[in-house]
Amino acid sequence: MIRTEEMLLNVGPQHPSTHGVFRLVIKIDGEMIIDAKPVIGYLHRGTEKIAENLQYTQIIPYTDRLDYLAAMTNNYVLCHAVETMMELEIPERAEYLRIITMELGRIASHLVWWGTYLLDLGATSPFLYAFREREMIINLLNEISGGRLTFNYMRVGGVKWDAPDGWIEKVKAFIPYMREQLAGYGDLVTGNEIFLNRVKGIGQYTKEEAMDYSLSGANLRCTGLAWDLRKNEPYSIYDRFSFEICTADTGDAWGRYQVRIQEIEQSLRILEQAVEQFPETGEVMGKVPKVIKPPKGETFVRIESPRGEIGCYIASEGKKEPYRLKFRRPSFYNLQILPKLLVGQNMANLIAILGAIDIVLGEVDG
Amino acid sequence: MSEKDKEQLKKEAAEKARAAAQRKREEREKKKEKSNDSASEMPQTTEDVTSNQDLEKQKAAAAAKAKAAALAKKKAKEAEGTETEPTANQDLEKQKAIAIAKAKAAAAAKRKAKNANENGDSEKAKAIAAAKAKAAAAAKAKGKITQAKETEVSEPITPSPQQPILDRYLNIVKEHYKDDILEDSYINRMSKHVPTIVVKLEHYYSLALLFKQHSGLHFEFLSELHGTDFETYMEIYVHLYSFKNKQSVALKVKMDRENPRVDSIASIWPGANWPECEAYDLLGIQFTNHPDLHRIMLGEDWVGHPLRKDYEPYDVEV
Amino acid sequence: MFGLAKGLKYTLKNMTRKKLTYDYPNEPLPLPDRFRGIQKFYPEKCIVCNQCANICPTDCITLTGKKHPDSSKRGKIIDTYDINFEICILCDLCTEVCPTEAIIMTNQFELAEYSRDELFKDLVWLDENDTQLRRENKA
Ligand code: SF4
Ligand code: SF4
């Protein structure tokens, strides 16, 4: 066997496949990765520190900027934490609007992942198709919230806007369209032999490892563990919908791919039921005190974001501002396993492994 | 190109511009002459010119104002920054003193007023009315208080659905430790009734290990780990979950604020690695036996720990 | 090979579809009414209640009021009103709290400038910014 000299290679922080500013220092021996060290923090904005001086409503726009591909779930986790502390009642209609927007966001987020992951692997056209469909979702969300990415839509006790006229019908019309496209995606990619060879058996880990490393979301479900907070610890009104937890049992990039694609289908199912049950009339804002002051104490809630388990911890002193606010950011936890997955792999698999974890750097760095 | 050349060019350009302007003016005048009612057009054009000039002036003025305002802001901020720090304490004390004095004065005034009311015949009726109103308000308030009390009383009576689970945890802990290693244990109702256990610092690691390995507890998933600066002490909050038993627990440990140091649990749950780095970076908590403790977000050369309540932003360039 | 052929079929099917891209700089982008763009300010409506400056999460609004020139009227009128668009995140909170709708959103989003100073918009500029106003401003 030919021995080669070890080399230190710097990937990023401005590398297109890292989807943000993420740096990876890898040590390679020929084509083999023998050590990897992720360097993060380039996008750290100190959201938690800033939030200590802000009122709860003012923090909501900041949560938009954590996981900027699925800002609705971030909006929701903060509102949900405050509502849990104050034991607020949320009007029915608002709950439905929240679910609809969150599930639309989940689909959009998975579409971005799908498109960019295949782009990383060398296929250009799926990216364009995915962004075409995502643009429709973004337009829907723009119509209801007034923002394309940073929605700032949810409020403690409800949502800011009611659905505009005809919006629900548009969502209704989008569901079959998306189904059709999803089938097309299957034709385009899922059966493609080149793609399958590229992802099968790549970045594999076991269920125990996934649990040890605190992985969540598709990264956990791909090992066969049926764990979805929407089902296992239902929040909001998720217990009213029937849907399945998508799992795969391979624990590799291929499993993660399957889980995410199936999740789009399940989200469409939830959407279908939600628009069907959507109440005709009703308030979108519950009875909320003028100044939001959660009682003294602390809370930790967690919900299922497209990337995994997003949590929010609030320690309150009974003031307008939180004493301490902390987000459990799923990408931050999910990324930890990366060095372990990379060691012993071929260089060419680096991007395939990193991409399959599905990170958003805004969330990793907080 | 030399300076002279440049100047030459400039001059030429200026002359050209002047010539062009001249031409334009001439053309315009010609046009005016052509048009029959030159009298009506004349004032219009002049107006146009002046309005344009005015606009520009206004814009310039506005811009100047805006800049001035920005400057003033900056100055004011600076002044604040330098002045308030040393005097803040004094000010606060003064304010407090003033407030107390005011409150006393107000109380005295009230007393006087009451006396006066009682003395004055004409004002009796009013006073009675006021008294009635007050009484009604008081009654209401009382009602509220009793209500509140009732709810307060009734709450502990309805035990949390999680209480038996907490008891089970406590029993297991008792089985394994002879002495009392817990500082506190309660159900956190505000946090979806999660059983919360506060452990003594020196037993934190061994209890964490027990939580993971004991078959009745089996918390194999670390959902969250973070620190908080509570000004009198530091705290680590760990949220654990057991997929096997479908139960969760919040484990807390308090430590000294000046020299926060705690055992790392990254060897039990590898997922605690980065969160501990984050707590070290942002709060300065030292984790002993951590595999790779580094400042994960801010970098090694950052001064201070931002999430500490006494953090002073330090920046060489400012 | 079968997989590749199936993929090709999807690609071919998409060739006949309508174009979905916008000819953006040449044609304005179609935006929904609720879109949050650069604010429009009505000085005559403002009651100098300071709510917008207080709710702003990035502290980018500065305003000062002065006494009403007509001394028979109480209250204040606006004197200066500046928004610093270097840090405004167009979050919509200022327009949400304003009791008189003196500040509302427009559908304009083109803020590119050659200098940072130009992003400091004052009362006059915000007053003149009166195209594509948002119709629905209160939820
Ligand atoms: S949109 Fe938001 S950031 Fe901008 S001025 Fe209004 S409140 Fe401030
Ligand atoms: S909230 Fe409206 S009325 Fe009050 S100061 Fe701001 S712009 Fe003026």
UniProtKB/TrEMBL annotation, chain A:
Annotated keywords: Cell membrane, Membrane, NAD, Oxidoreductase, Quinone, Translocase, Transport
Respond yes or no to whether keyword Membrane is given for this record: yes
- Class in the EC hierarchy, top level: translocase
Where in or outside the cell is it found? Cell membrane
Q: Which GO terms describe its molecular function?
A: oxidoreductase activity
Q: Does the keyword Cell membrane apply?
A: yes
Listed EC numbers = 7.1.1.-
Q: Which domain of life is it from?
A: Bacteria
Q: Where is the NADH-quinone oxidoreductase subunit D domain?
A: 120-292
Membrane-related topology note: Peripheral membrane protein
- The principal location of this protein is membrane
**What's this chain's function?**
NDH-1 shuttles electrons from NADH, via FMN and iron-sulfur (Fe-S) centers, to quinones in the respiratory chain. The immediate electron acceptor for the enzyme in this species is believed to be a menaquinone. Couples the redox reaction to proton translocation (for every two electrons transferred, four hydrogen ions are translocated across the cytoplasmic membrane), and thus conserves the redox energy in a proton gradient.
Name the family: Belongs to the complex I 49 kDa subunit family.
Provide the assembly information: NDH-1 is composed of 14 different subunits. Subunits NuoB, C, D, E, F, and G constitute the peripheral sector of the complex.
What is this protein called in UniProt?
NADH-quinone oxidoreductase subunit D
Q: Which species?
A: Cytobacillus stercorigallinarum
What lineage is on file?
Bacteria, Bacillati, Bacillota, Bacilli, Bacillales
TrEMBL record, chain B:
Q: List where Low complexity composition bias occurs.
A: 60-71
Q: Where are the stretches annotated Disordered?
A: 1-94
Q: Which InterPro entries match?
A: NADH_quin_OxRdtase_su_C/D-like (IPR037232), NADH_UbQ_OxRdtase_30kDa_su (IPR001268)
Give a single Pfam family match: Complex1_30kDa
Name the residue ranges with Basic and acidic residues bias: 1-36
Feature: compositional bias, Polar residues: 37-53
Domain NADH:ubiquinone oxidoreductase 30kDa subunit, by residue range, is 198-312
Q: Which PANTHER family match?
A: NADH DEHYDROGENASE [UBIQUINONE] IRON-SULFUR PROTEIN 3, MITOCHONDRIAL, NADH DEHYDROGENASE UBIQUINONE IRON-SULFUR PROTEIN 3
Q: Which family does it belong to?
A: Belongs to the complex I 30 kDa subunit family.
What protein is this chain from?
NADH-quinone oxidoreductase subunit C
Provenance organism: Cytobacillus stercorigallinarum
Q: What is the lineage of its organism?
A: Bacteria, Bacillati, Bacillota, Bacilli, Bacillales
From TrEMBL, chain C:
Chain residues that bind [4Fe-4S] cluster 1: 46, 49, 52, 98
Q: Provide the protein's localization.
A: Cell membrane
Q: Which Gene3D superfamilies match?
A: 3.30.70.3270
EC number(s) of the enzyme?
A: 7.1.1.-
Domain named 4Fe-4S ferredoxin-type is located at 37-66, 79-108
As for membrane topology, the entry says:
Peripheral membrane protein
Organism of provenance: Cytobacillus stercorigallinarum
Alphabetically list the UniProt keywords: 4Fe-4S, Cell membrane, Iron, Iron-sulfur, Membrane, Metal-binding, NAD, Oxidoreductase, Quinone, Translocase, Ubiquinone
Function per UniProt: NDH-1 shuttles electrons from NADH, via FMN and iron-sulfur (Fe-S) centers, to quinones in the respiratory chain. The immediate electron acceptor for the enzyme in this species is believed to be ubiquinone. Couples the redox reaction to proton translocation (for every two electrons transferred, four hydrogen ions are translocated across the cytoplasmic membrane), and thus conserves the redox energy in a proton gradient.
Which reaction is the catalytic activity of this chain? a quinone + NADH + 5 H(+)(in) = a quinol + NAD(+) + 4 H(+)(out)
Q: How does it assemble?
A: NDH-1 is composed of 14 different subunits. Subunits NuoA, H, J, K, L, M, N constitute the membrane sector of the complex.
Q: Does the keyword Lipid metabolism apply?
A: no
Annotated residues for binding of [4Fe-4S] cluster 2 = 56, 88, 91, 94
Q: What is this protein called?
A: NADH-quinone oxidoreductase subunit I
- Hey, which family's this protein in? Belongs to the complex I 23 kDa subunit family.
- Required co-factors: [4Fe-4S] cluster
Q: How is the cofactor bound?
A: Binds 2 [4Fe-4S] clusters per subunit.
Q: What Pfam families does its record include?
A: Fer4_7
Q: Which GO terms describe its molecular function?
A: oxidoreductase activity
